[in-house]
Every structure is written in structure tokens, then in C-alpha cells.
Write a structure and sequence with these properties.
Blueprint (H helix, E strand, L loop, with lengths): L19 E10 L2 E11 L5 E4 L6 H9 L6 E6 L7 E4 L10 H11 L4 H14 L15 H14 L4 E5 L7 H17 L2 E5 L3 H7 L2 E6 L2 E7 H6 L4 H7 L6
Parallel strand pairs: 3-7, 3-8, 5-6, 6-7
Antiparallel strand pairs: 1-2, 1-4, 8-9
The structure holds adenosine-5'-triphosphate (ATP).
Membrane topology: Peripheral membrane protein
Family: Belongs to the ABC transporter superfamily.
InterPro entries: AAA+_ATPase, ABC_transporter-like_ATP-bd, ABC_transporter-like_CS, MetN_ABC_transporter-like, P-loop_NTPase
Length: about 250
């Protein structure tokens, strides 16, 4: 990971997340297995970068982990049995037709944060992500980069133990990408486990603690980032890291 400036250092206040376990997980559609069987455990805070070519099953894996999809076979579980506080950020920001601050306050209410704490948490998160001046702006009038920062601010306000990010930067320009990567650092510093998909091998090199590499719906390897980038084991990962076209 690249080093952080002092202004970006944040205190660690998040309880360590429970381990996430995939055991023989598959996801199928109309008799076609799209993912799996897939087994791995995430017990650190990553960042875990989920990589692989188009259609490899990266988004499916994230959605299964976050509970948005159910496996056809196998089991997705959290150690201790109780899912952690978790949030997900998508490629296209998902925001309500209301102001930036109201989007955050709504999320805090849905997550049972006491009413008296919501305003302060929401404004604090907007400030952290450079959006304080836009608090009353309708969220859908913000630029693409600002909208993505707003989804990150919303996640930040919820203090998630686990944050899933599905291609969060693929529609953004370099400045906006940098803001998202800084946010990823900040979540990680605070103790949030990051699980993120990306197509961008350079971004993965900047961010990854470990890598889950998929191709053709199969998990080819789960290794520390250094191993993945320097000595990938599977032929598919070797080709991917070498910049060849992989299906
Ligand atoms: N809910 C779903 N129901 C049926 N098929 C799906 C569903 N979601 C994804 N698929 C299919 O599963 C395969 C894997 O999709 P997925 O979105 O996980 O790939 P990906 O690795 O994230 O690809 P990309 O890099 O293009 O985003 C694709 O063929 C896709 O069309």
C-alpha cells in the first residue's frame, strides 16, 4: 500500500470483523453454473482485490458475500454466526431522490442509529469526503465523482466492519479515482475489511493485501498480493499478470 499523509490517518475504532467463509459455493442460472464451486476464507482486513476477466464471476462473488444472492449449493457464513455491519458500493452510485445529507440520514435511520446522532454523523462524513458544501444539493445533481464520494460517505457514516466495492472507479476520471482509493485507505486504516473488484491491475497493485483471482467462474487462486503479482500459481493468473488476454 502507498503511504498515507498525516491528514489521511484515521483512528482504529471498528471492531474486528468475523471471518467470512465460502464452502463449496456455487451460483447457477438455468442449469448453467456461473460461479464455483468456490471455497475460501477471509479473516484479515485485506484489502482483498477480486480480479479476473469479464464474466469471470467477480460481481457474483461479491453479491453472494454481501447476501444479495443466495448460493445454489454450498454455504456462505460468518464466524460466530452473526453477519457483521457491512456496506456495498457499486459501479453506478445508488442514491435516493433527495439531498446529499438526507441520503445519509436515511441510511443511518434504516440502520437504527438513534435520531439524535444522525445529523452529526452525516455532516461529519460529508465533511470527510469533501462534500460539506453540497449537503443540501439533490444527490442526483452531483457529478459522477461526487456521487461516488457520497456513497462512500454514506458507508463511512455507518462504520461498517466490512465494505464491499464492485468496480467503484470504472466510470471515473483520474482525480475521482484517486479520491476513491484514498477512501479505501482510510476505511482500511480504521479497521474495515475491504473486498473490492477491479479490472485495473495497476489499481490492484496499489491497493491489494491479498488477491482472489477468478476466471471462467472458477476461483483459480487466493494469495497474498506479493505472491500474486510476482509468482502467480495458476496458468490463468500467470497469463493475466503478463497482460495476455484471458477468458
Ligand atoms: N443474477 C444473475 N442471474 C443470472 N446470470 C447472472 C446474474 N448475474 C450475473 N450473471 C452472469 O454470470 C456471469 C458472471 O457475471 P459477473 O457479473 O459476476 O462477472 P464479472 O466477473 O463481474 O464481469 P465484469 O468484469 O464484466 O463485470 C456473466 O455471464 C453474467 O451474465
Amino acid at each position: 500500500m502507498t503511504s498515507l499523509s498525516a491528514s489521511h490517518r484515521v483512528s482504529s475504532t471498528i471492531a474486528p470483523p468475523p471471518a467470512l467463509r465460502f464452502e463449496g459455493v456455487t451460483f447457477s442460472h438455468e442449469d448453467k453454473v456461473l460461479l464455483g464451486p468456490c471455497s475460501f476464507t477471509l479473516d484479515g482486513i485485506g484489502p482483498t482485490l477480486v480480479m479476473g476477466p469479464n464474466g469471470a464471476g467477480k460481481s457474483l462473488l461479491l453479491r453472494l458475500a454481501h447476501g444479495l444472492l443466495s448460493p445454489g449449493q454450498g454455504k456462505v457464513s460468518w464466524s460466530g454466526g452473526t453477519p457483521p455491519r457491512q456496506a456495498m458500493v457499486f459501479q453506478q452510485p445508488v442514491l435516493l431522490r433527495r439531498s446529499a445529507v438526507a441520503n445519509l440520514i436515511h441510511a443511518l435511520a434504516v440502520n437504527n442509529v438513534p435520531r439524535r446522532e444522525r445529523g452529526k454523523l452525516a455532516l461529519g462524513a460529508l465533511e470527510r469526503f469533501g462534500l460539506a458544501a453540497c449537503a443540501k444539493t439533490p444527490a442526483r445533481l452531483l457529478s459522477g465523482g461526487q456521487q461516488q464520494r457520497l456513497t462512500l460517505a454514506r458507508a463511512w457514516a455507518l462504520s461498517p466492519q466490512v465494505l464491499f466495492l464492485d468496480e467503484p472507479t470504472s466510470a471515473l476520471d483520474p482525480a475521482a479515482i484517486k479520491a476513491v482509493e484514498t477512501a479505501v485507505h482510510d476505511f482500511h486504516q480504521r479497521g474495515t475489511r475491504i473486498v473490492m473488484t477491479t479490472h485495473d491491475i495497476h489499481q490492484a497493485r496499489r491497493l491489494a493485501g491479498d488477491v482472489l483471482f477468478l476466471s471462467g467462474g472458477k476461483l483459480r487462486e487466493h494469495t497474498p498480493a506479493e505472491t500474486f503479482f510476482n509468482q502467480p500459481v495458476s496458468p490463468q493468473a500467470q497469463a493475466f499478470v503478463a497482460g495476455e488476454l484471458v477468458e
